[in-house]
Amino acid sequence: MTTERAVHVPGGVAVSSPVATQGTYKSTTLPDIKLMMWVFLASDCMFFGTLIGTYLVYKGRSLVGPYPVDVLDIPLTTVSTFVLLMSSFLMVLALHSLRQDDTFKFRLWTFGVAFFGSIFLGFQIYEFIHFVDLGLTLQGNLFGTTFYVLTGTHGVHVAIGILWLLSILVHSFVKPWTSKDDVYLEVAGLYWHFVDVVWIVIFTVVYLVEFV
Amino acid sequence: MAIGKLGAPPVVGRPPDALLSRPTWTEGLLSWLTTVDHKRLGILYIVTSLGFTAIASVEAFLIRLQLASPNNTLLSPDVYNQMFTMHGVTMVFLAIMPLAIGFANYFVPLQIGARDLAFPRLNAFGYWVYLVGGVFLYTSFLLGGAPDVGWFAYAPLTSLSNNPGLGTDFYMIGLFVGGIGTLATAMNLIVTIINMRAPGMRIMRMPVFTWMILVTSFLIIFAFPPLTVALFQVMMDRTFDTLFYVPAAGALPILWQHLFWIFGHPEVYIIALPAFGVISEVIPTFSRKPLFGYPVVILSGIFIGFMGFAVWTHHMFTTGLGPVVNTAFAITSFVIGIPTGIKVFNWLATIWGGKVWFSTAMLYAVAFLITFTVGGITGIMLAVPPFDAQAQDSYFVVAHFHFVMGGGALLAFFAGLYYWFPKMTGKLMSERIGKLSFWLLVPGFWVIFFPQHFLGLMGMPRRTQTYVEGIGLEFWNLVSTAGTFIMGAGLVLLLVNIVHGLLRGAPAGNDPWDARTLEWSTTSPPPYYDFDRQPVVNDRDAHWVQKYPESVHGERVPASASEPYDRGGAHMPGQSWYPLIAALSLLPFSYGWLYDNMWLVGVSMLILIVATYAWALEGVGGKHIHVGGHDEAHRAPDEGVDA
């Protein structure tokens, strides 16, 4: 996308860097790609909102089992949820380390985020296989249809995030990242935190509410 | 186009840190395929959407020919269903909305004094995805039949058992893919308008067209995801036998109606608000007065945007949601009429007392005011649930939405076309042909659609292939069909006028209308860098103030006490193949999904991923424009990541 990143100059306006700084005036101090990520996430809220809404509309309407209480395993999913939450913590550490120009820790924590995300995905794959064994399929009942499509879409978001973070990691070996590149990691972090927050909603709505 | 003739192509070697180099063609087909210039993409959008308008007009013409007389057999019921479905889908998704996006592409950066959109390659991607979606939809005619389920494709009519043909798959996949491009472009426009305004172009100094595009873009990013999910759910049902819309499994097909109209009603404003924006540019220019009540017009637009999400069930009054729901949504539907009415009065007050110049653009604007207001009034009638229960799915509804979408939005965009054509081409369209075309097109429109109110109230249902004689429907149907010949002649003359203007048009000069906003301060057509020196904005109607500083009332606020940067020159983005390649990968993806060929889907996704990485990693490219227009190739940055 754009090759600019905003740097602050006295007077509250920002010009772009590193390419051809002249004449590329920005009317806010927010870098383009960061603003873009916020706008994208706003849109993605509606995307997940519709999927979660569909789940809620069809909640309790399945005509045949297995029903949520038959398959959902709260302790197991609590562990995977905790792992995903901790990955967000590592994301914060990774960004902090990059801003400190601590390349080793930046790489370590970035890898950590991707690794924890992969553990979460592993749990999800295990869960899906286990649920199919228990008789919950995409075509079996409305719970299966809405559950797999909702959590599967979330899983795809996590997978894209992992791919993105690993790409950053590889790129940082091709061309070292410094604190001046922090916005690129921050944007990936925004995405990651969002996907994490969506999981908190899904975990509450799909898993916890069943056992209230 | 004169674009690209300025300056020799820069000699750009492969920058040391770039994995791939960027194309640098400035003329010819390859330059258009790799372009990231918002003006070229705007022209591509406008030309493509006018092409789809022509196709949809032919479909409408066939529909009217079929209905000209009772018991007609020109179109079989099956073909008739395809015609009205494709007419609706084409007009909404492939004609009017992209026409608005085309104008936004071309004129938003110029109006805010920017060099381009914030993400030029993403902008190119958005256009090519739109084209891919449109071409994909239209190949359905060759591959077993077009969609025939109506433009809102209610479930469970769209289930595999009720509709085994490929038509429904074309609808679902085509709109799914096309929506990706629309979303990308809307996000791009939001970032552009928020972040790339020229110094002093504060939010309440922005031209109204830019303002309305901002509101519209927010509507798009919130309205399209529900549609995308709903389309995906139906395709899951059809491809993988899921149960989203299978009543036998306990599903509620009405969920589709909710999701569709949560998208569908904002979509009405996605089409209408840019039209309001165009009108708010054309009327002040040709009345030679500033827009009356600028802040009120803006706030009304924002209010319409909010309320647009709170009226969707008025499309579902007859589905039995109950009196409480119907009453609530009747009230919100009345409320949304208020800001719309406010805007109409503001436009009237702008014309009042002005030195009105009835150019063709202004004629279309006035026709818009009248036609749109009539459509708005029938809209208020339909918002009354007991009346709606009578008129639902009748020709009264058909007349209503053609008055707002066709007579409202389309006439406004024709006003925009006449208004901005000189800026885009440097040539004037003929006013003589223009006025002749106008006096055929607009009265023709009224002859077609006004009698449809009567037909609807007489009980003629929409989407019915024919009617029997002797129930009083023959006369007005014949009148309506006769109108298509008049309006059709007007449309043909409009196309003739465009070609005539391109070939024989008189030179336009920079500012043929003595207009008010910044796009008129640059050359016609603008150089590819738009402005070599970024304008500084001191007031609303920035160009007018530059021309006539003595006419400004009130306090003028300087842009900024001191400019802490050099305004000269601009950074221009480099061209790229990857938006095109990424967008084209969605074509085999669509066919793979259509024919359940998961290998083809996988290969397409792989191409998309590779193209995305190449996109992210290709070099900087582009040029730096100095004041006066000479350029200099960019060197690779010494630092930073080329994202």
What does this structure look like?
The complex is a heterodimer of chains A (212) and B (643). Mean pLDDT of chain A is 88; it is low at 1-23. Chain A is built from six helices and three strands, in the order βββαααααα. Chain A has two domains: 1-30, no CATH class; 31-211, Four Helix Bundle (Hemerythrin (Met), subunit A). Chain A is 69% helix and 5% strand. In chain A, a hairpin with a 7-residue loop joins strand 2 (14-17) and strand 3 (25-26). Chain A has a three-stranded antiparallel β-sheet with strand order 1-2-3, with no helix packed on it. Chain A is mainly α. Chain B has one domain (29-74, 104-161, 168-192, 207-244, 251-551, 568-584, 618-633): Cytochrome c oxidase-like, subunit I domain (Cytochrome C Oxidase, Chain A, Up-down Bundle), CATH 1.20.210. A three-stranded antiparallel β-sheet of chain B has the order 1-2-3, with no helix packed on it. Chain B has helices at 29-33, 38-67, 77-112, 120-138, 167-195, 208-240, 254-287, 294-307, 323-351, 360-382, 385-391, 395-425, 431-457, 474-504, 542-547, 578-584, 586-594, 598-617; strands spanning 570-572, 623-625, 631-633. The longest helix of chain B is centred in the N-terminal third of the chain and has 36 residues, at 77-112. Chain B has 643 residues and is an all-alpha fold. The model of chain B is unreliable at 1-18, 559-565 and 636-643 (pLDDT under 50). At the A-B interface, strand 2, strand 3, helix 1 and helix 5 of A face helix 4, helix 5 and helix 6 of B.
